[in-house]
Design a protein that fits this description.
Number of strands: 28
Radius of gyration: 25 Å
CATH class of the largest domain: Alpha Beta
Helix content: 25-40%
Bound molecules: ligand MGD, iron/sulfur cluster, molybdenum atom
Structural class: alpha/beta
Protein name: Assimilatory nitrate reductase (NADH) alpha subunit apoprotein
CATH topology of the largest domain: Rossmann fold
GO biological process, one term: respiratory electron transport chain
Keywords: 4Fe-4S, Iron, Iron-sulfur, Metal-binding
Organism: Knoellia remsis
GO molecular function, one term: NADH dehydrogenase activity
Strand content: 15-25%
Strand order of the largest sheet: 5-4-18-17-16-6-7
Length: 730
């Protein structure tokens, strides 16, 4: 009798919630089911349920491709492709120096791949210029947490802790669409009337606060910092602080109080549109739930809505200040957290693909860190380069005098997801060599000189670190298509062709062992872990999890309970006043554009636009317009609308809805071509984190008359460069 198919325990390929899945191979295809786990409790969202479809994408890349003299991209062998890449990289390096080769990574890569990519850049290419799309995603929260709390772990507590809290302040996060199974953890706060959502849109998440479940504060886009300073004002002025906690566990509160004193509620209302009444109510809800008043617990959480801003680090800093003033951080049942976005956004930033970091969350300019990592890599610390350029600066420098001439892309679709994306396409086109590793012909792969087909998700082994700092096993459930290869193998082959020092493992378990050694003693210490231990233990382990001589370290679900990893063991109030968004609205561009996500699509859409069920449910770029604004411009639902900023224009179908403010339009960024929101967004960055201001820019809105050129679906197949010129949304 045939044995029933074995279910493989794994996790979703998409977001940082990393919902647990059970994958079963049936008649050559993978079937996905939800699996019980504390974060998702057996649930999956529509993307998770349909995730196996990407394994069968009709245009899945299965052979290396090289652009020939005619400009057409043609199939070639792996040897020919790798030989060509190595030869061109050597030429560029010899002529322009090692920093002329740059690397762009992704927060979707496994820990093993993120680690190996950082090592490959530093000692096989010898370049300082490596950064990744996490710069677009988490960097402001990271910078603020490091400054205030001494370490960045998105949620320094298990997600399930949220369930016990009576108040949760959720700033700029649309969890109901971006992590639907996580909404269950807001139930306690909703039942207590304490879910407070701050979003310029009545998003699906903001609507969870309706009907007595909480409050929706709907500020002018880009004014979260004044909102937070106003909340702090009320907390200080009305004696709602946890004075004992502030005295014992923090420094700098007086500076924060002084700044907040200048943001009295009437001033906040004038700047943000959030009423004094709402502001006070929100502060009192939070205070009443906080431990110093005997409440059941309160949380302050931030998402991309407040972080993707030119003052994102300052804004997250103010959110942390509020949590510190109320005595929430480092207390069981209360806290501050940033909701990590990408599947391995957390691990992706710990293991060395960020321009200023080495594995284990070590800083690249710290001599002790360099010595430790060099020892693991078997090289002289002197050969490890210093800090490279952060993502937006790196992309802008491509092909310019003194800038990189070659770029290797692993796990990002920059032509759709980078700010001011048409400019990014111009910079990519100015390169001598663009190499893209992907699983599908993404819009960025369509522009490459060499495309390498790599493995995805259920085709390989590895680990991911979820939004709560838990290390999870990703397991292989299906054989990859013949012709696709693991990126670990690609780097080992290139390292050998480039004559790189060091050992280049291709087995993910061995790479993990090396990563664990490299992380030992660092802030994100994985040294007590191995694939074998993670396989043996049912529940995944939170870092830090250092190696021990005896009983294995149990991992650290909650940080900061005793002290903070700062020089004096205290958390710091870091103070910065509001300077407003970089681009103010005015007569020439009177409307705010905010951008974000829809439930069905993931990021640049490279994966989800290829899933028929998701593309059917959410087929085209759209723009949300308030009825008053629509009326002013003669826009009817379904009209084609053009949204224009100083960078460029995008076209999308109008959805007329009072979910947005009359002064604001909203576009998701999941589509390419003329429907791409990032043709319009601003690539100005936060001075501390390098995070671009995706969320707010100034635009005009106009209805396009029907004589506009006919529309054609954005190409998802084909690799000809001409394919993109006529893309328009339908
Ligand atoms: N369906 C889906 N889920 C995803 C992803 C996806 O692409 N699709 N991506 C994953 C990743 S990488 C990430 S980073 C997370 C992102 O998860 P979220 O942070 O929840 O996602 P966004 O939709 O980008 O932004 C959240 C909200 O910010 C609001 N916003 C815009 N401007 C402002 C502002 O000035 N102030 C405030 N307070 N809010 C503002 C938007 O209206 C939006 O509702 O989602 C993850 N999950
Ligand atoms: N306007 C606007 N723009 C935004 C945002 C926003 O809110 N508004 N959000 C920003 C945020 S938070 C993020 S995280 C970025 C994300 O934007 P991107 O970096 O473009 O993210 P993805 O679309 O996930 O791209 C990942 C690519 O890697 C491929 N891939 C999947 N798995 C692997 C693998 O294992 N190896 C390799 N080599 N490739 C793989 C996928 O097919 C896809 O082409 O977008 C940012 N852009
Ligand atoms: S919420 Fe995120 S991890 Fe969970 S199923 Fe959806 S995309 Fe996957
Ligand atoms: Mo993200």
């Amino acid at each position: 009798m045939a044995r029933p198919p074995q279910a493989v325990a794994s996790h979703c390929p998409y977001c940082a919630l990393q919902c647990a899945q059970s994958l079963t191979l049936c008649s050559g295809t993978v079937e996905v089911a939800g699996r019980d786990f504390p974060t998702n409790r057996g649930g999956l969202c529509q993307k998770g349920w349909t995730s196996a479809a990407v394994l069968r994408a009709p245009d899945r890349l299965t052979t290396p491709l090289v652009r020939g003299r005619s400009g057409e991209i043609e199939p070639t062998s792996w040897d020919a492709a790798l030989d060509l890449i190595a030869m061109r990289l050597k030429e560029i390096r010899d002529t322009h120096g090692p920093d002329a080769v740059a690397v762009f990574g992704g927060g979707g890569l496994t820990n093993e791949k993120a680690y190996q990519l950082g090592k490959f850049a530093r000692i096989a290419l010898g370049t300082a210029n490596i950064d990744y799309n996490g710069r677009f995603c988490m960097s402001s929260a990271v910078a603020a947490m490091n400054r205030s709390l001494g370490v960045d772990r998105g949620l320094p507590f298990p997600l399930t802790d949220l369930g016990g809290a009576d108040a949760i302040l959720l700033l700029g996060s649309n969890l109901a669409e971006t992590m639907p199974p996580a909404v269950a953890h807001l139930a306690g706060a909703r039942a207590a009337g304490g879910l407070i959502v701050v979003d310029p849109r009545a998003s699906a998440t903001a609507r969870l606060a309706d009907d007595g479940a909480g409050l929706h504060l709907q500020p002018v886009p880009g004014t979260d910092l004044p909102v937070l300073l106003g909340l702090l004002h009320v907390v200080f002025a009305e004696g709602l602080t946890d004075a004992a906690y502030v005295a014992q566990r923090t420094t700098g509160a007086e500076d924060a109080r002084r700044l907040a004193a200048s943001w009295w509620p009437a001033r906040v209302e004038a700047v943000t549109g959030v009423s004094e009444v709402q502001l006070r109510a929100a502060a009192h809800h939070l205070a009443a739930a906080s431990p110093s008043r005997g409440g059941s617990g309160a949380y302050v959480l931030t998402g991309r809505g407040v972080e993707q801003s030119s003052q994102g680090t300052a804004t997250v800093g103010a959110a942390i200040n509020l949590a510190l003033a109320l005595g929430l951080v480092g207390r069981v049942g209360s806290g501050y957290g940033a909701i990590t976005g990408q599947g391995n956004g957390q691990g992706g930033r710990e293991h060395g693909q960020k321009s200023d970091q080495l594995p284990g969350y070590r800083m690249i300019d710290d001599p002790a860190a360099r010595a430790h990592v060099a020892d693991v890599w078997g090289v002289d610390p002197a050969i490890i380069p210093g800090k490279g350029r952060p993502a937006v600066e790196l992309l802008d420098s491509l092909g310019r005098e003194g800038g990189p001439r070659a770029l290797l892309v692993h796990g990002a679709n920059l032509r759709v997801s980078a700010p001011n994306a048409r400019h990014v396409t111009d910079r990519l086109d100015a390169l001598d060599l663009l190499v893209v590793c992907d699983v599908v012909p993404s819009e960025t792969a369509q522009r490459a000189d060499v495309v390498l087909p790599v493995l995805q998700w259920a085709e390989e082994e590895g680990t991911m670190t979820s939004l709560e700092g838990r290390i999870l096993r990703r397991r292989k459930a299906i054989e990859p298509p013949a012709g696709a290869r693991s990126e670990l193998w690609v780097w080992s082959e290139l390292a050998s062709r480039l004559g790189a020092p060091g050992v280049w493992e291709i087995d993910a378990a061995l790479v993990f062992d090396e990563l664990a050694r490299a992380s030992a003693g660092g802030r994100a210490d994985y040294s007590g872990l191995s694939h074998a231990r993670l396989d043996a233990e049912d529940a995944a382990v939170h870092w830090p999890c250092p190696a021990t001589d005896g009983v294995p370290h149990p991992g650290t679900p909650r940080l900061f309970l005793d002290d903070f990893p700062t020089p004096d063991g205290r958390a710091r109030f870091v103070v910065a006043d509001d300077v407003g968004p970089a681009e103010a609205t005015g007569p020439d561009a009177p409307t705010h554009l905010v951008t974000g996500r829809v439930l069905q699509h993931y990021q640049s859409g490279a994966q989800t636009r290829r899933v028929a069920e998701l593309a059917g449910a959410s087929p085209e770029p759209f723009v949300e317009v308030h009825p008053v604004l629509a009326d002013r411009h003669g826009i009817e639902p379904g009209d084609l609308v053009e949204v224009t900023s100083a960078r460029g224009s995008a076209r999308a179908i109008a959805r007329v809805t009072d979910a947005v403010r009359p002064d604001t339009v909203f576009m998701p960024f999941h589509w390419a071509g003329v429907g791409s929101a990032n043709r319009v967004t601003n690539d100005v960055t936060d001075p501390v984190s390098g995070m671009p201001e995706f969320k707010v820019c100034a635009v005009t809105v106009a209805r396009l008359d029907l004589a506009a050129p006919p529309t054609r679906a954005p190409a998802t197949t084909g690799l000809g460069r001409a394919a993109t010129a006529t893309e328009v949304p339908t």
